[in-house]
Amino acid sequence: MIGMIDGYSFTILPVYIGEISSPEIRGFLSKLPTLLFLSGILIINVIGSVWSIFTCALIASVIPLVHFVTFIFMPESPYWYIKVNRYDEAEKSLQIIQGENDVKQQLLIIQEAVREEEGKSKPKVTDLFTVSINRQATIITCILALQHKATAETPLFLFTKTIFEKTGSDISPTVSTISYSAVEILVLLLLDFSFWTDSEREFFV
Known about the structure:
By secondary structure, the protein is mainly alpha-helical.
């Protein structure tokens, strides 16, 4: 279940956000799933230091329930409507998203983007290796992913409190865990705002 939720959060959600948001803030909004993921860890660590696991589970269950009740009223992506030739519904969806009645210009831009996408040949998995630019992107992505795993971030994330307990520090393991989560969020926010003015390549270096 957790794997399904993570798969949804980090794949489908960014696509939906990208299709309904304006280009000016699309980059920042695409990072929201990661920010909310880390915020959830911080919140559960805070309330977990006060209440039992069962109580924390009940409190945490409120969020997906609110999501389910509210998200059914969210408009469908206008890109999807145009792809299936439902132009009137695409216009209504765009009006809700933009908060404006006159969305003809934006609708034409989306139609042109969809037309260009459909005019291209259907991508294949082999394109990741046979097309030069895709091959370079694939290699860079794999290297960055391997470097990320080599930092031992995953076991640190899973056993944060246990690790702090084993250190024998005078600082409470709970306080250390909460501080660790808070620092992660702070760094992410700093990087998000810095990306607007600085080079992404410099951050990777």
